[in-house]
## 1
Amino acid sequence: MRALFADRHIGTDAAAQKEMLAVLGYPSVDALVDAAIPAGIRLPADAATTLPPAASEVEALAELRALASRNRVTRPMIGLGYFGTVTPAVIQRNVLENPSWYTAYTPYQPEISQGRLEALINFQTMVTDLTGLATANASMLDEGTAVVEGMLLARRASGAATNVFLVDADILPRTRALLAHRAEAVGIELVDSDFAALSPETSLPEAFGAVVQYPGASGRVWNPADAIARVQAAGGIAVVAADLLALALITSPGELGADVAVGTTQRFGVPLGFGGPHAGYMAVRAGLERQLPGRLVGVSQDANGYPAYRLSLQTREQHIRREKATSNICTAQVLLAVMASMYAVYHGPRGIKEIAHHANRLANLVVDALREGGVEPVHGLFFDTVQLRVPGRAAEVVAAADAEGVLLWQVDADTVQFSTDETTTSADALVVLRAVLGDAAPAELGFKPVSRSIDPAHMRQTEYLTHPVFQTHHSETGMMRYLKYLADKDYALDRGMIPLGSCTMKLNAATEMAAVTWPEFANLHPLAPEADTVGYRELIGQLSGWLADVTGYDEVSLQPNAGSQGELAGLLAIRGYHRANGGEHRTVCLIPSSAHGTNAASAVLAGMKVVVVACDELGNVDLADLRAKVAEHADELAALMVTYPSTHGVYEHDIREITDAVHAAGGQVYVDGANLNALLGYARFGDFGGDVSHLNLHKTFCIPHGGGGPGVGPVAAKAHLAPYLPFGTANPVSSAEYGSPSILPISWAYVRMMGAEGLRRATGSAVLAANYIAVRLREHYPVLYAGDNGLVAHECILDLRPLREATGVTVDDVAKRLIDYGFHAPTMSFPVAGTLMVEPTESEDLAELDRFVEAMIAIKAEADAVGAGTWPADDNPLANAPHTAESVIAGEWGHPYTREQAVYPVHALVHGGKYWPPVRRIDQAYGDRNLVCACPPVEAFA
Amino acid sequence: MSLPAELKYTAEHEWVAVDGDVARIGITDYAADKLGDVVFVDLPKVGSAAAAGRVVGEIESTKSVGELYAPVDGEVVEVNDAVVDDPSLVNSDPYGAGWMIAVRFTELPALLTADEYAALVAE
């Protein structure tokens, strides 16, 4: 029997769908979707497709094996921000390959996310310790974008009048290119400066900030304290892009006076993956913590006064600040940050120092032997990266090492460099020596003392990783149990439904995940020769082609590391297009008031001015206001950003009129693909007027959310915008050319196993599930918006404001009470305050949908009891939710409802896998007023 | 909702207490309630210029961000450091300990009375 993967991916089978359709009063899923999606944008059911027919799970894995076999696994010693590392097997198996970690969502509901919040606060502590700074965030997308964010932070924080930012001449080349692309759009002028060669007489140009690479891209280790002080003396903010492992041995940026440190944590046990995903980092000195972009985990307390973790300063985020947001970075690389933090937990400070010593010692072994052979390194002081002058022979040296399976980096025709790391062996060192010295190379490297390549005065003297968590879990048993202990605190898709509207928490199938850790995908350096990455490029080409096909576009770039970065890439493409066609003055970006705030933040970072378009009472774009705004700004109109279906979860009937009006005025249309799960197979952005879109592979195409990252936000566009998209070295928005390649096999496998028909069925099933929930709950909670024929798209908004009016019960109360019923809450107060947005996805089965519906109905009854005075407003199962085990067994039970009502509101939970939250409701205000973002002392938990 | 009759108000939900040529400014009880638990207050430096209708500060709660507008043209002569240290004062005592800044003004624009402000909020 050849089982169809689509039947495994879609939760509701034919019988269940029949039952649901009867509730809705439609004869078939197609009839339902016909009634919901406006006819004018529908793709004919028999439309041609380039997608191959669905493969079985076994077939897809075999094809992936064949692709993998066309990649060549070597020993990369290229460095430049990417290093060999050993992922401890206990971390690979229990984190990277464990759905309890990879299927969780961003920890917006902190009470059910304490495990990964603890892992993230370990990450923040690790980064603050090693960088010597006060506060670190919960990770950045990669090193290059972290440097860009450092630049933007410097401009905000310095208050200097100049628009000049100084860039170290020895910065990573890709970071320099990324800075240039991003700086130009926001009017920042980059000035290169050779900081290491700065003489006391040279005066620095006036600047709002500077970035120093430490150690330099050339491997040079030097003391930038003087350069930092001079930047600051002129009113600038000093950003140091530092190698975290090097900081185990050399003086930290904080001790050198830096304001900001940024970089990557890849070499802390995260596979190379041909460039990503990896967790970047950012840390700041005291006083700048409110300027940090991205996520910040802090400590607060729960209703019992116990310490509890949560996301801090959430009002910094885009959905609140919109065009005034300080960054468009919404997310982090949580799964990778967890891995990096666990690497530090597992190895502890001594282990980390030994790994740093190993890399440094191997580099010194090579350099000592080279000196004996008459070759001097370009820089005598280094940590793990060494540059060598080999006049006229660079290509030959690189080729000789390549022939022995070791990759070196050719800087220019006369210069090569190599980097050592945790994985480097003396055999690798001998390959380097043979490549450079030829027959003069030694036959072996015995154990011998090596020279010093770091100035003793520059060696690190301060301690790091001193918190007990970094001393405790060094045995594998201990580590395994710590990871299990943390995972048990969290609610992920392996426990139940996560009906978060706008997040598309669908199945991340085991087969889709399988290839991520195969060495042929995991262990490739992003700068590996093309001949070594044939399989990867083929997979990327196929996936890009399929994504273009299903969205109606011509070109797809997989480089953006998140939806926000896809937005930025798309808007920068529009900007590039207008400028190339004499439209420099076209800078106005129209954004409907219902749009996600990130749209506005991205537009600002693409150098555009945001003009808001009103929505009508049905939640749709107000056509009259759109026409008025288009007319008012016709000459300066750059683009409209519109989400389809809308953020209100509705198929707007007039989308064609909207896109036509913008095109008629010379503007471009950006269709935000956040809600593509409601459209795939039934309509295509490119067919109804979209010029460019970003997709979220971590929503529609099954890449797991990882607890808040990784994400992949490909940008797809019509041919006229293709020259301005991130391809190769042009228009970069990420450090790596292909962004996060190691997780692309997930989306490849999904499309390969679903085929065009399967994708279409998934969409129909998702729309069916959302409408089923809307109809079942409508009499208990008003459904706020609906489109044609009273239907919603793939999600529905439940209006809880009338409930609050009548009973005083809030959205928060309902969300936290759902935890007692064994659910993750829907999206709270987005896009409308006081509402819950429910997106069930196609992957949940009817029993789980019904369990959710019944929980919501039961909670409504509880709220009514509060409203009727049966329970006091401040002492009832909702106000006190969620209930921990301790809260119902400790001391006297003094509440007006029973303990059973508290924790077993549905009897089935007694035998049915009850989820016990580890903390009670968390005090949000306390945590923001008393900002603590590092591991609290152990006594706090006594 | 408490609205002291002796104060003046603005459409931006601020109150103004005039004493000679100095206006002391805070946000109303209504605004504090709408913001929710205030967790951070960012105020201008003493000596900086204030222009009527322009943003001079920020009031951040757990769920939202409000802006502090200068109701008058002038110079900031005093800021309330206590509310920066303990932002919860905005919620607990908006007309007293939760005041924000004092501005020495050149000319007092038309402001709302308590009754007029109450009517505005009721809309």
## 2
Amino acid sequence: MADEPKEKQPSPVPAGDKPASSPAAIPPPKPAAAAPTGVTPPRPAVPVPPKPPVQLQTPLNNELVGRIRAKFGPVLVEAIEDRKQAILTVECGKLAEVAQYLRDEEKFDLLSDLTAVDWPKREKRLDVVLNLYSFAKNERLRVKARAADGEQVPSVAGVWPTANWLEREAFDMFGIVFTGHPNLTRILLPDEWQGYPLRKDYDIIEQDTSWVKDNLGIESGQ
Amino acid sequence: MAMDTTTDSRDKQQTLLGADELVLNMGPQHPSTHGVLRVKLKLDGERVIGSECMIGYLHRGVEKIAEHRTYQQFAPYVDRMDYVAAVSNGLGYCEAIEKLLMVEAPPRAKVIRTILTELQRIASHLLWLGTHALDIGALTPLFYCFREREEILKIFEKYCGARLTTHAFRIGGLQYDAYDTLEKDVERFCKAFEPRIKDYEDLLTQNRIWLGRTKGVGILTAADAIALGATGPVLRASGVKWDIRKAMPYAAYDQYKFEIPVGSTGDTYDRYMVRMEEMRQSRLICLQAIENIPTGPILAKVGKVLKPPPGEVYHAIEAPKGELGYYVISDGTVQPYRVRIRPPSFVNLQAFDKMARGHLVADVVAIIGTLDIVLGEVDR
């Protein structure tokens, strides 16, 4: 595990184009800046703030969004576009109803993918993400629902049978409970597995060290 | 193989012979499950009345690993998912990250990528054909298929040094330019391959045993296929003319003419015919592509340290097995925040139960083969 820590470095955007901004070259200014000496080191990183990133997530207001807003009102929490891909966020409790509408009325008949993302710092930490495709429109749509830990998410397996295994995987990896799912059990991991591996607080080194300690009674070399 | 009669009253159904149903465990160590698939079959005599796929024996936590690697470091891992079509996996991943970075590979890189990916499709389909035919009892095609596949792997080896887990592409384009005789090698292969497909068809297409074992077996209607999320040849054999290469072109596919073969009944025979025709079409794409490989750079201007702007992207390609999607979220650091891989094999395998019901145990082997699953990708 020789990965560098995920620290926000004040490097200019095209970091790779400048050989000076290799990871080894970054640390020196930091302790110098923190030290209370009056030497005031040169801080070249500050005057280069074209950093305020171009807002890639822009509000989306097309006809589809208009129709959904007209039908569901405040259930549609957010509609944005990121890199030309439409992303809708809907209220978690109404996910199945919105899904039914999207399939029947808007012809998003293929559920390409259903997965989840963990944002531990957020109040509702889990995102359920559906990637839909419409054969008729040749269009993709991403639908998200935010769920708190332990909150029940309505299953969409009744709308798209594909969701059966995909929701089982999301349950397996994130511990999201889908209500109305025909058989919500672990799918990739053994039934007796503890924890939900794809959550951000599930540490891989910790798993190894504790397993070795418990089962072999020695310190892990990791 | 473990055999036991169920005692669970819930599972008891009125069977044809009035006897209790039998639960037969098939795999995970079974030559015809193509790896470590375990299927629990509920049988009435020799007829399947229910099934359950148990997967995960090859789970390596690829998505978790991704969160602990930089964007470039993770690229070789995707080769290990569908390990018989590593080039396609790599293409999907590289293109997804390029979308996230908002860069585009140069035209030369795109064309070389297309050539290699189509060769990979042929290689993947050849492996499928050989093993599928072997499962059903036709021994000869296996040797023929591996002979041709070897030619493709030799091209890969000449190009990047590796035969299977190639890591052929880089984010932003290619690391290696085409070697001097790539066009000639591809042309020679394509010329020689045309009559060879006919050889396979001579062995199988009109073969009475083959027809008996595949016609009407494992029927999946178009509506079922869509509802179950099946993609790739499985969907097309059910009569849905959908191919991501045409619907949402990526790489250089918009420059070439090719047909999307479709079936009508969605049985095992149709899936066989669709894949055979796909090999022909892939061959045609390769021939068109080598005619005019643009000159110029092979790598777009991407930094050595990749820090995609925060945001997310879903990018799907038509892998040999179906829709291979990458859903990548960046938080602006050098490591992806989340990489979700939408594996075609995993989703297609879900259709197994629907296809197997009502068939004989022997047909189960044909149905597993026709789905063309790779467990490395199912379990990730």
